[in-house]
Amino acid sequence: MSMLYGRLDDLREQSSRRLASALRQTGGTHQMRSERDTSVALYSDQLAQYSAVENGLCFGRLDFDDEGRFYIGRIGLFDEDREYEPLLMDWRAPAARPFYLATAAAPEGVKRRRHLRTRQRKVVGFDDEVLDITSVDPARRSEGLTGEATLLAAVNAARTGQMGDIVATIQAEQDRIIRTELNGVVVVQGGPGTGKTAVALHRAAYLLYTHRRQLAKRGVLVVGPNTTFLRYIGQVLPSLGETGVLLSTVGELFTGLVATGREAAGTAALKGRVQMADVVANAIRDRQEAPALVEIPFEQDTLKLNRQAITAARGRARRTRRPHNEARRTFVREIISTLANQAVSRLGRHLLDQADIDDIRRELREDENVRAAVERLWPTLTPQRLLEELYASPKRIARAASKLSPAERALLVRTPGAEWTPADVPLLDEAAELLGEDDTETKARAERRRRQAIDYAQGVLDILDLEDDADPDILMATDLVDAYRLAERHGAETYETAAERAAADRTWTFGHVIVDEAQELSAMAWRTLMRRCPSKSMTVVGDIAQTGDIAGASSWSEVLSPYVMERWKLTELTVNYRTPSEIMAVAADVLASVDPALVPPTSVRDSGFEPWARRVTSVEEALPGLVEREIPAVGDGKLAVIAPAASVPSVRTLVPDAADDLDAQVVVLGVTDAKGLEFDSVLVVDPAGILAESPRGASDLYVALTRATQRLGVVHTGELPEVLSGLREVTG
Ligand SMILES: Nc1ncnc2c1ncn2[C@@H]1O[C@H](COP(=O)(O)OP(=O)(O)OP(=O)(O)O)[C@@H](O)[C@H]1O
């Protein structure tokens, strides 16, 4: 072990030396500077990676029948002095696969698999498995687990509020999914706690390792349901030495806008329906107006546009099939030409030459009244303006959404200035596609960046000039020219990771997209995501049985077939690593009430703790004491109180130490925010309230019950819902 850490230290020192020397270089030709920037980025990345893999650098060893052996770890290390012989095998390398897949029945030449337990840089223990067919006991329940002792230690450990990586104990069914080929859509369906999120993140690391060249350029996007969840999983990829992945919610994908507004569940569900794509398209056409007559005062005269002329211009513009803001140019040209003809014939065509006619056109184009008229007939629109003005006007909604019922249309009405909601984002994105990019802000940003680069280049040249001790007055002008040129070249080659560039660009398309809790996404959100991934290289991870959002999915085929028809591959995870069997037995009844055909995943272990229910006369009175009593039981771990969304604020006041950030020991959450998370102990408050709160209430209760890794208690005031009759009632 010390040899491996010695090698890691050498590499770290080498990179910091190179980084320091790159940082010391200043000036030089533009090419030297851009090379320097690339080196700085490269060495900084290397240093970040070396620190990230410090913990648990090496976690396994494979001994082969032919007496060969090698160590497995987070990254590959090679012996420089001995022709780069491998010292440590990267877990993602094909040669490392038997560590995850070899079994006694199919040992792949492996004699022994060793899982190493390390603390800081020391080995503190190990578990060996001898892959010997005669040792297979067919009666053992856990047969088929890889590295069972290490796995059980990992799943039993107290939770920290941050998801950890599972690189040392990936199971065979998970490994197969992680290493599925890059192309095409892979769906990972699995019950709660089956490691879907873990698999998705390890797959991102695997794909970046295996297809580095292809993916580093376009980047990988991981989409999660909310920012709490993204924070929870945020450390996993860095701990695997990967930092260039963009983590985002769908609500954050519309660059330059924060969609934190809230709205009624029915409104959000409606906005998620695929029919909204037509509503947005109709809303844009509706803005291309053709009134019976428009009169435009121009100089001493009044020019007239009748409906026929407007419709003709509009037809031409529409036939370009360009987005609204781009087609506007054609519309303007047609209108100006109609108006110019009128003006010319009134003045007398024979009195004017071509230069006069050109002047008239120019004057018309610049005239305030003409501009205002054109703006009314074919306005320049941003997605924000389009939607805001649509929501503000029941009349506009009626025209754009004639296929919706009056009650549905009423759900869309909203006063201008209200905050954008997550369900608005796919609509804004749809609108942006149909309107054409309004890139004023991007252009302004690029211009600012260019100016900074010019200032920098100018600064460098100034220094060089001074060093040359030349006449500053003469050099000024040429320097300026050079500075522009240098800055431009320099700017084009500035090093930014794909993830950074992608985050600043709405139209960025990714090399691979991973969608977690994918069952929650609406049809409109899928359209947004599919646009970000034209190659349709995607990993879609979720559990149809856990769908809580009314706009969410009821079947993978329904979600995916509009984009890839039947060309997607279903993979399944069946073992639950989180929830112990005692809790799963209770959750299984709830699952059966969602759909009797659904099969719950099999728990990998028992906890020895029986979940309970307690009927109380008042939650206000009882809950603080129950929380107090539960805290010592979780020790260093975490406790979550999960309540119906509507009662979360009041429940929070009952648990004084509770916070909504996951670092706190006790958190109070609604089901939506608890999705994908886990805690050592969970208290579910008011299960009947959770069931009643949404048409998908049973799925929500199933999610709430399956968040616990050890202990579960249910607190209720009225009768315990029928689906929980398997719980033991306790008193006192
Ligand atoms: N092979 C493994 N080794 C160790 N721990 C594992 C393994 N697979 C999963 N786990 C652990 O099980 C827990 C559940 O995993 P994860 O959150 O990925 O499940 P999930 O399927 O996404 O669950 P849900 O659908 O409820 O969100 C995590 O703590 C994860 O680290």
From TrEMBL:
Organism (species): Saccharothrix violaceirubra
Annotated Gene Ontology cellular component terms: cytosol
Domain UvrD-like helicase ATP-binding span(s) in chain numbering: 169-580
The organism's taxonomic lineage, starting at the top: Bacteria, Bacillati, Actinomycetota, Actinomycetes, Pseudonocardiales
Presence of the UniProt keyword Repeat in the record: no
UniProt-annotated binding residues for ATP: G190, G191, P192, G193, T194, G195, K196, T197
A GO BP entry: recombinational repair
Domain of life: Bacteria
Protein's recorded name: DNA helicase IV
Gene3D superfamilies per the UniProt record, alphabetical: P-loop containing nucleotide triphosphate hydrolases
Molecular function in Gene Ontology: 3'-5' DNA helicase activity; ATP binding; DNA binding; hydrolase activity
Keywords assigned: ATP-binding, Helicase, Hydrolase, Nucleotide-binding
PROSITE patterns given in the database record: UVRD_HELICASE_ATP_BIND
